[in-house]
Amino acid sequence: MNVIEFNSTRKRMTVIVRTPDDRIMVMCKGADSIMLPLLRKGTNYVPQTINLLENYSREGLRTLLIAEKEIT
Model pTM? Predict the structure, then answer.
């Protein structure tokens, strides 16, 4: 439905899609420093995600985070 291209200011790319079951989803991928503050607080995802990122970084791996949300 729409694409918000990656740029060096936003450090993320966003797409808006309609799923086969007619839901509208926003999907975003980007640098962990930009995406982590956007994650919903109070869920198990934040500590688990930070732990995984730390493990990957110790191994010298580069990472991008992907998040999605249904919108009306």
Answer: 0.78
* Whether domain 2-71 has CATH 3.20.20.30: no
What are the sequence ranges of the domains in the chain? 2-71
42 φ, ψ (degrees, to nearest 5): 80, 10
Mean pLDDT of the chain: 91
**What secondary structure, in 3-state letters, does the chain show?**
CEEECCCCCCCEEEEEEECCCCCEEEEEEECHHHHHHHCCCCCCHHHHHHHHHHHHHHCCCCCCEEEEEEEC
Say which residue the tokens 């985070």 belong to: 65
pLDDT level of residue 29 (50, 70, 90 thresholds): very high
